[in-house]
Structure formats: C-alpha cells, structure tokens
Amino acid sequence: xxxxxxxxxxxxxxxxxxxxxxxxxxxxxxxLAVYFVGEAVFxxxxxxxxxxxxxxxxxxxRDGEPALWFLSLSPYIIWQLLRLTVKAFRxxxxx
Length: 95
Hints:
Layout: H1 7-42, H2 50-62, H3 66-93
Helix pairs in contact: 1-2, 1-3
C-alpha cells in the first residue's frame, strides 16, 4: 500500500531538485559562457585555456570567494526573482 506524500514534501523535493539543477548549470554552463564571452570581448585568456580558467574559478569558489558564489547561484537567484515578479503582478492584477 503506497501512501501519497504530503503536498509540502512534494514542494520541498521539487524546489530542492530545481536548486540542484540550477546550481549545476551555474557551476558548469555559466563558466563556459563567462570564458568565451570574456575571450571574445577582452581577447585571449592569459592562462592555458579554459581548463586552467575553470580550475582557477573552482579553486576560488572552494576558498569561499563571495563573488564566485554569487555567480554560481545566479541562475537560481534569477529564477526566484522571476517567480516573485510574476507573483507580484498577479497579486497587483487581482486588486
């Protein structure tokens, strides 16, 4: 006999999965974009290419560099800001 999960537990699981996927994007896809856009705008990276850039970035991330944590968490932060904006417009529209 299977019991259904409470609504709050489903919501927490969904939010955790969303957070992990967006964190993964922030740790993998965002550094790629930063590297290639930086190379296109500012020219060749001084190091040995993307591998060194990625290693340096994650080294500073492990050291607790706030700017890099913000960069890595930015996909999730942007998603939450979009959610709040939509909710604010819905609430404002209902009054």
